[in-house]
Every structure is written in C-alpha cells, then in structure tokens.
Design goal:
By secondary structure, the protein is of the alpha/beta class. The protein is built from seven helices and eleven strands. Strands 6-9-8-7-10-11 form a six-stranded mixed sheet, sandwiched between helices. A five-stranded mixed sheet has the order 3-2-1-4-5, with helices on both faces. The chain folds into two domains: 2-75, ATPase, nucleotide binding domain (Nucleotidyltransferase, domain 5); 85-230, ATPase, nucleotide binding domain (Nucleotidyltransferase, domain 5, 2-Layer Sandwich), CATH 3.30.420.40. Helix 3 packs across helix 7 and helix 4 packs across helix 5.
Length: 247
Amino acid sequence: MYLVLDLGNTLSKLALFEQDVCVQKAQYPLGHFMEHALLKWQAQYNITACILSSVIEHEAFLEKWLKQTNFPIYTLSHDTPLPIENLYETPKSLGKDRIANAVGIADKNTDKNRLCIDFGTCIKYDVVSQNAYMGGAISMGYEMRLNALHQFTAKLPLLSEKICEDIQIGTDTESSMYLGSFGGILAEVFALIEQFKAQYSDLEVVITGGSAKYFENSIKKQIFVQFMPDLTLRGLLAILTFNHENK
C-alpha cells in the first residue's frame, strides 16, 4: 500500500493506493493538516512506502510523524529520479506539482505528445514529448485574477469563482470582471494550445486542478480534452513506484 502526500498552496491532499487503485483519498484547506486521517490510515492499512510533495512549511505534527514512521518516505525534489527525462533548464525552480503532472501525463508505452493544463492557484501548462518533459507556461489562476482586481483597485468588488460561459459582453461591473477573468483565461488557454500544437504534432490535452470544473465544459465545446482530477496524485504515485521498486 502506497501513501501519497501532496501539500500545496491551497489544499493538503493525501491518498492511499493499492497498485494503481485509489483506496482512500482526502483533502483539507491550507492550515488544517490531515492528522486524524493520517493516523487512522496508518493504523488501518499496511503502508509500505510514502512520497511527500510539499511547497509549504511542515506543521509540528508532520515533522514528528515523518521521524517515527517505519516505512521509507521519499521527499520529492529536483534531485528525485523520474521515470521521464527532465529537459527543464532550471530544474531547481520547477514546481513539484508540475513535475508530478508531467509524469502523470507521460505514457510509458508510447511517445505521444501531451499537454497538461492545471487550473490551480496558478494555471500551469506542461508539455511532455517522447517521454521527456519539455517545459510550458505559468499564469494567474481564476481566483487570483478576481482577487487582484479587488485588491489593486479602490472600488472593484471581491468576486468568487463561477462558470461564466454565457456572458458575451459585460453590461455591468460584475459581469465585466467575470468576462475579463473567465473569458481571458479561455482565450489564453486556446491560444497556448495552438502555440504548443505548432511545435508538437498530434498534441493531446489533459486538464486538472481545483478550478478545472469551471472551464471544462467551455473547453470541451471546442476541442477534445481529457479531465483527470487526480492527475497530480497519480503522477506522485508513479514517481514513488519508480523509486521504491527500482532501488
């Protein structure tokens, strides 16, 4: 049984896998670490290895737990061996979620070209070609754009994420903000897809991330995409499996 821990900027996620089958999964807002679930799973299941991917400071409980486990824990870093080649010029600065997503979309049985679009705190675009990570792009996420409009102006309101595919023109301040943010992201997404397609033929597109649900329908109306909500977790699982079973 493999345990995957993914501590991100917004959410802390954990999952248990029996081979490639997800047996348990949970997530918590930032600052609410999953102490109860972690201890419960450890007592209930025979965990044989764990991978930790973290971009935040570890809470005291986690630091203590990491030192007391009786199974190997692999901490993801730029030095961690990967089942794909990493061609990024600055691997130390490459986000752990981007590494995991790249591994997650790679097909070890083919040389397909694939693009992952991760709608998270930031929107990350990552391309894998012939089982090598090529790079991609990073832009502001949906919530970040709405928050920035409010924080950096005197009068614009604070809006929450929602689906806005029916807004064709902003007829008031709120609809104008939504069209600029929601519609701007869609325009960016389609433009970058075309840019990457010009470089990598027969490019397959995969979307993931907490905000993907707002854009999935709008994107699928124009192109074929695959929605993989657990892509990052499964990419981390693949990295764990590669390291633990080949050491």
